[in-house]
Specification:
Blueprint: H1 22-29, H2 45-52, H3 72-75, H4 78-92, E1 102-106, E2 114-118, E3 136-140, E4 147-154, H5 158-161, H6 166-194, E5 203-206, H7 215-223, E6 232-235, H8 237-245, H9 252-261, E7 271-274, E8 282-286, E9 292-297, E10 301-302, H10 304-308, E11 315-325, E12 331-335
Parallel strand pairs: 1-9, 5-12, 6-7
Antiparallel strand pairs: 2-3, 4-11, 6-8, 8-12, 9-11, 10-11
Length: about 325
Amino acid sequence: MAYQCDNVKLEKGMYREAGRTFSQVLEKLDPSEQYKGTALEGLDAFQRQLKRFDIRVKGAGSDLVDKFFSTSQSAVLFPEYIARAVKVGIDESNILPEITATETHIEGMDYRSITSVPEDEKKLKRVAEGAAIPQTTVKTQSSLVRLHKRGRMLVASYEAIRFQKLDLFSVTLRQIGAQIGRMHLEDAVNVVLSGDGNDNPATVVEVASAGTLTYNDLLTFWNGFEPYQLNTLLVGSDTMVKLLSLSQMQDAAAGLSFHGTGKLITPMGAKVLRSSAVPAGKIIGLDKHYALEMVKAGDVNVEYDKLIDRQLERAAITTISGYAKIFADASQVLDV
């Protein structure tokens, strides 16, 4: 049976179409809707092209890297394969969805977020007849969101990798993605701590006794989030040890759950996330529904010209993103 995907002409220019990724260009030329009820149902346009050129990228029977370069058209698929493998690595251990309220995609490098200023935020006022209704002012931030380019340079000769299995090569690419993901998290933590340039650093709460964490300190921290909820804690390895050393975290039920499943009992029901991006002696608390906005200018970018032409010696893999604080009081820091 002949499919439309077999007749799509692949060329470098598909990576340069303004406002669309390579996959989106492919999907426009070869819509997935027309494959319902066929053997190719469930595959996206890029995966159908892999099927067309019989390129297997996963499993013990995966092909060699050289298979992408068997024809000039199949070579055009190589940069997208790299971008997707890197994105898998970014997403595998990515905790950003756990701390960001929303994700905004933009075109260009300039973006100004908004902020809301509720009147008498911590009071629930009854509105009497004829009285003024409490208001929330929504306005644009005075400073632009700082966008940062993060990435890694892929340094390898084509001769060095051409006979490597794609499944093994994907592992290397996923590791590159994981490194980029850690850079993004460091950017997010920095914005929480220092603010996004709009005079909104996180409120710092001191423990009762410097260098010592007690359960009462956590209760005070939790209580200070009203009207927000403390539902996420970001901690470094040093503060994670102090947290787990609290007697309240060591009862029989907590120990059974931790030893059996690796899941921790958490303070006040907040989800605890460990990350080396958090400075020593700090516990970051967030209401993940209101704290941070992630801003992305495009997706994973690769130097497609070099990759298609087998010039892998120095091919950059990059992403561009930044963070803005939505409600300043939805994130606070406990200084241990």
